[in-house]
Task: structure prediction
Amino acid sequence: MEVLEIKHLSFSYAGEEKKAIEDLSFSVKEGDFLVICGESGCGKTTLLRLIKSALAPRGTTGGKIFYRKHPLEDLDERTSACEIGFVMQNPEQQIVTDKVWHELAFGLENIGVPTPVIRQKVGEMANFFGIHPWFRKKTSELSGGQKQLLNLAAIMVMQPKLLLLDEPTSQLDPIAASEFIGTLKKLNKELGLTIIMTEHRLEEVFPVADQAIVMERGRILIDGTPRYVGSTLSTLPEGKKMSVGMPSAVRIYQETRELLPEASVKCPLTVREGRKYIEDNFEHEIHSLKMSRNQEGAEKKEEEPVLQMKEVWFRYERELPDVLQSAGISLKRGEILSVLGGNGSGKTTLLNVISGTKKAYRGKLRIFGKRMKDYKKNELYKNTLALLPQNPQTVFVRASVREDFREIRKVMGYDQKDMEARIEEVAAKLQITHLLERHPYDLSGGEQQKAALGKMLLLNPRILLLDEPTKGIDAWSKKILGEILKNLKRQGISILMVTHDVEFAAEVSDKCGLFFDGQILSMDAPAEFFSNNTFYTTAASRISRSCYDRAVTCGEVEKLCYENSRRREYECS
Result:
């Protein structure tokens, strides 16, 4: 039976002529797991919100949505609330109570379920999700992963028939994201729950889905099984951009299948399938690239660090434990450093201390050789340092992106003509010119992220601090962002980035480090860092490490496949 059927759905936001969704038609069978992907702003979130009536945006809608053969608008509020669950991208936005146990009970209380029944259902759900160790905790004390799991459990206690998730892993570290996807797989396979999920991070979710849809500019570009979409997408003229966001095994297959004598090799989806694909189809005589990009940039002259932190300690309150414990870091001119680690480990706190928004109680911190306390008023933030926060909405104060960008004029002292020229230049660089007249809060998560970065770049910083800069951004935009960061690096700008995105860190970083126990563990080049890790590593490294050494990006694995293929051809000739 079809749980959901969408026929010729179109939608445009109030006051806008351009359609966010245009002529969408598809159906989802009961018990299916559907993943929807596409560029930021392609309409994924809008589509999910239209399916959940209580969250539907204001605007003009055409076409029909049917839930279990009934028009969506005919559903009563109780059915809509209980049977169609929704998990948002930002876990903070969905939690409404101060205690974990109360959050689990809140939905049932609102629909008048008797207290004994509530206790039974909440207890069962807390056990199923492993919440019982923190059942009595305050919701404010939970990590990002725990908050998102709590949101899911609070929805599941209502026993929904259809679960909608809007990029639920975008703010989770790799381990928490993997566990979250594992929980969804369990709900789908063991309970038969129908799931529709939008996602940019496809590495974990793509292999467990039954159906995949790729959207572009409000339309469906391709749909089918994940294996069909993975093998076919790159052959479409419009599919080149989205192919960049496919799982690593798919990307390696797409770029190397032309080397195979037989076209019948099926597209791999998982790390295990990707490893077998390489082992079965390519020689392994050449184990590593002659010179990695890390070695190319290794011969860098010794110079005074632009940022130096030594033995820094910080806690939020006197009676609370230290978040930073003897933390230290050194950042040179024109260097990109990435810090990875678990949710709630203190990475954001590290950036806040460096930016001066939080003050350490012990230790040394120098920016361009000058002590932090010697910077007066806004001196640190003018042509010196800028911080892109984890929540981009916090940087917006005006009704349009352009007006928000103009606020920088007050800080930097630009004249009006120069300010407008700089706005156009930054917008073109980030490919957000078409967003300048939009309200920042009307943008998708990825679009907000790019707009917030644009505002930071207008401060003309020499040190750029980035807190989860790829959160909510599609793969093609990430590629563009990576090129922008590399270009900033060539201009001598130093970048310190906190991220959960191991693939992005492997692509752009000069060094990577793991934040643990209040400090950054030793920094190392991406090739060494990711090759030596088991969990905090790239899928490309896990796929290739049985055959090749120090290959941590898809591009590096592809190059080794090509080199080994050429060697085989040479020997055969």
